[in-house]
Amino acid sequence: MPRTATIQRDTSETQITLSLNLDGTGKSELSTGVGFFDHMLTHLAKHGLFDLTVHAKGDLHIDSHHTVEDVGICIGQAIKQALGDKAGIRRYGDATVPMDETLVTVGLDLSGRPFLVWNSHVPNEMLGTFQAQLGEEFWRAVSSSAGMNLHVVLHHGHNTHHILEAIFKACARALRQAVELDPRSSAIPSTKGTL
Looking at residue 1, what is its pLDDT? Predict the structure, then answer.
């Protein structure tokens, strides 16, 4: 069965069409109107080996908050939809990613219970039209909509671009691991029998 999803979200603030293939090759087609955000989503697709298409139009005349958060909601919904009952997946994933002076560790559980721990001080600055604090808002939206327990730990680093890029790459690597099919089990990976 293909593990894919297409999400359409239309609000007074954003109009988003998104498609996701969990078993892709890392291809992406991105158009959010926020250049740095597109750059981060490219890393999410490439390092997660997901095929990701995002076309978003948002109220960028205000700022990029609604666009970034709503794309996060859509990605979370797409992950949840593409995984179905989660039978046969590894469920857990973790990755530690260095980028120059920065080191980030991410651990996650596709438990169905959303929770975000963001132990990462990201300097509050603008990267193009992307406010750096939106990195946390994006991953909170993904976690909440996917039903994912997500822990993000910044060990050290001071360059804002490097910090956010390492976070997106580590999340991608951990998510890739968690959604992979386990060759040893086709069962739902929970003693409850459901996730």
Answer: 84
How many separate domains does the chain show?
A: 1
Whether 46 maps to a domain, the answer reads: yes
pLDDT cut 90: percent of the chain above it: 99
* DSSP structure string for 73-136: HHHHHHHHHHHTT-TTB--EEEEEEEETTEEEEEEEE-SS--EEEEE------EETTEETTHHH
CATH of the domain at 43: 3.30.230.40
Q: Report how far residue 170's alpha carbon sits from residue 160's, in angstroms, rounded to the nearest whole number.
A: 15
Q: Which of 106, 120, 116 is nearest to 175 (CA)?
A: 106
Task: State pLDDT tens for residues 155-177.
Answer: 999 999 999 999 999 999 999 99
181, pLDDT greater than 90: yes
